[in-house]
Known about the structure:
This protein has a single domain, classed as SPOUT methyltransferase, trefoil knot domain (Alpha/beta knot), CATH 3.40.1280.10. Helix content is 39%, strand content 16%. The protein has a 7-stranded parallel β-sheet with strand order 3-2-1-6-4-7-5, sandwiched between helices. The model has no long low-confidence stretch (mean pLDDT 92). Bound molecules: S-adenosylmethionine. S-adenosylmethionine binds next to α6.
Amino acid sequence: MPTPERTAKIAAYRQNLLPFAVAVVNMSKEMNIGSLLRTAHAAAVRELILVGETSYNTYAAATAEKWTPVRCVPAPAEFVAEAQAAGHSLVAVERDPRAISLFEAAYPPRPVFVLGAEKYGVPPEILDASTLIVEIPQWGLVPSLNVAAAGSLVIYDHLAKLCGARAAVKAPASLADLRRLAESIP
Length: 186
Ligand SMILES: C[S@@+](CC[C@H](N)C(=O)[O-])C[C@H]1O[C@@H](n2cnc3c(N)ncnc32)[C@H](O)[C@@H]1O
């Protein structure tokens, strides 16, 4: 039986989920999805969308799956249509000639950050439908980052830029403050 404090914390968390989402497409390693879900949960992401995948590793999620909604969409075309109908902006996280560096990226309102499969990346139809493609600069000799690491970097870059956009809110005191801030940006 949770304590009253824990019950209140759970209610506040659910009430203040932030207006952005994360999606992964055709991911093959369930551990990566679980790991990304753990970061998404820490950052109060509204939901994690699994495109073309239906399961993930709950060990890596470390119970985040209990609190952060996870939804499955069968295919990229359906995912794109749904996001567009809901007025969400797709932000593909990918190395691509059209990509903007993470250091310069300005994220659109209500973004859905889309991560690609370990082997094949974000599919072309999602890249083409994206408002923005963001690339994390690399200087190493390995050609790409782990997908969960890449997603985590972009999630926290988004939060850092949200807070930076309002000088008065350098370090939000609470999740409710952060949600009000996120929703105040048109
Ligand atoms: C391991 S990478 C995919 C590598 C794939 N073999 C390729 O060459 O496209 C898996 C996913 O992590 C993300 N990712 C990895 N490194 C990235 C980077 N430097 N910038 C942006 N996204 C990255 C992308 O979403 C990518 O689809």
